[in-house]
Amino acid sequence: MLQNLKTKAKLSILSFIALLAILILGILGTVQLKQVNNGLVRVYNDRVLPLEQLKIVADEYAVNIVDTTHQTRNGNFNFDKCVSNIDEAQTKIKLNLEKYLSTELTKDEKVLVDSLKSFVIKGDEVTNKIKQSCKNKDIDSITKITIEELYPNIDPISGKVSELIKLQLDVAKNETDIAAEIYSSSKTTIILTIVISFVVLTLLSYSIISDIIKKLDKVKTELLNFFSFLNKEKNDVTLLDINSKDEFGEMAIVINENIVKTKKLIEEDVALIEDAKVVMSRVNNGWYGQFIEKSTSNASLEEFKNNVNKMIDNTKNRFVHVNEVLTSYSKNNFVPALKMEANDERGGVFETLVNGLNTLQQTLTQMLVENKTNGLTLDKSSNVLLSNVDKLNLSSNEAAASLEETAAALEEVTSNVRNNTQNIAQMAKLSSEVTASASQGEKLANETTVAMDEINNQVNLINEAIGVIDNIAFQTNILSLNAAVEAATAGEAGKGFAVVAGEVRNLASRSAEAAREIKTIVENATSKANQGKSIATNMIEGYKELNQNISQTISLISDIQNASKEQLLGIEQINDAVTQLDRQTQQNAMIASQTHDVALITDEISKLIVSDADSKEFVGKHDVKAKNMNMGTNNKQIHEVEKKIVTPTKKDTKVVSSKSNDNEWESF
């Protein structure tokens, strides 16, 4: 499926998956941390604080009220002090009990609270009786209430408070277990998400980069093979095998089309040249009966073949004509004469032959008449030469047009490679965006570490509260010891007070034990929070490693970009070579123009010859006419082709001249 996607789409998918993985990790971490934090808040608000509140209620009943009663009974407190202490105790009991009841209560806790309320009502009734007796300063009433009503109504309150404290510890333990389960599940989920994201991103990155590198290597290899074929280092060339719908597939189609076209053209040219070598070898040996039969799609080379065949045929006909004239001269008939054909080059072998035979014929007749005749004939021939030079100009322009088409095709290939280079630059940009996303993930992991530190701070506050409870239990134990001493001092009358002191000491011991259990639970929570912080630290290290891997990916993309630029440089060198051929064709056109100037000079010379003959007097001077060359009879009609204006579009390159005409032809 990835093979048929555009390169831009592949990179977009890679970036989307990376961002999605970071988003999932952030959401999971935030949700799980919120759940852990809520559990700790519930433990502190609904379990730790209620422990302190219940402890105060129990102490006020069991210590303050009972102790005040005994101190007043023993005469250690006056009645006003008794009333003041009882009022203070009732205020604290009411305040802390209301705070406790305002917290979130469990079902079992509500049952115990309802039972506690009934005992509190009875305890308040006894307390009010003691307070009223103190107001009345009735020591006997106080003694009676202490012996008969105080402990039966106060002790059940301490028992229910102890049950509630135990229930608080059980609920706190459940909350801690829930927090541990959340931590364990969060740890597993986050680690699994990181592993899956890493594996998916690694496989996808490897797949995309391998696909790009593989296709670039194919393009590079086949282009080098094609260049070797063009330089005649190899006899064959293969096509690009990239069957995809991305930019590389589109580029491969264009390159293959041009390879097939160029290969066919070169093979046709080579076959024609080999055929021409055989024919020219026989012509050099005097055989004019064989012509070049091979054909090519190269218009210039095809025209060259036709001109060579025409030359062979014309040369053969001229030799036949010369033989006929010489045969006529051998029979003393000097009237026949050789004539220059329309396409004969001046100064060539044929002109020497024609002039030699015609000079022989003219010497036997009349030199001046022949001079005038030649002058008139030369005048006509110069016009024909001008016409042929125009046709040569047309042929040169056609060759330039063919080269222009080749340059346009190479320009299209260059454009595709340049677009590919730009796409690779876009890849580098998208990889930089993936690096930024990974940095954002590292930032979120750092924030997770900070959150874990805040949780540790909250746990430390809980530890401080537990320390306060432990101190209160210690002080209560001291008070119970003091009460025992007082009871021992009081003798028989202090036995009941000694029992109360023992109960208070037991309650203080249970409170201290409960504080130690809570401290152990909080220490476990602190350990779990530290483990969470360690995991967050590992996440940070993982993101740093991910950043390093992405940096390596960017480096690979940079290497690909440099390779693409080198390919672009190679294709531009091909363009330069085609431009050089185009300039050589333009030079041929310029030479044809110079030949046109030579034809004009030849025309002037022919007019000078006629003028020189007219300046002399001789018999038959005014009867002399120009020879009728019949140039339109034996020549083939050449169709005119609209001249194409060739405008070079490539940068100028240095033209290197070949050492010989043969080398020049081989280079072409």
UniProtKB/TrEMBL annotation:
Disordered: annotated segments: 649-668
Superkingdom of source: Bacteria
GO term, biological process aspect, one: chemotaxis
InterPro entries registered for this protein in UniProt: HlyB_4HB_MCP, MCP_chemotaxis, MCPsignal_dom
Protein name: Methyl-accepting chemotaxis protein
Listed PROSITE patterns: CHEMOTAXIS_TRANSDUC_2
Residues passing through the membrane, by range: 190-209
Gene Ontology cellular component annotations, sorted alphabetically: plasma membrane
Gene Ontology MF terms: transmembrane signaling receptor activity
Coiled-coil intervals: none
Origin species: Aliarcobacter butzleri
Keywords, comma-separated and alphabetical: Chemotaxis, Membrane, Transducer, Transmembrane, Transmembrane helix
Domain Methyl-accepting transducer stretches: 374-603
SUPFAM superfamilies referenced in this protein's UniProt entry, alphabetically: Methyl-accepting chemotaxis protein (MCP) signaling domain
Family: Belongs to the methyl-accepting chemotaxis (MCP) protein family.
Residues of the signal peptide: none
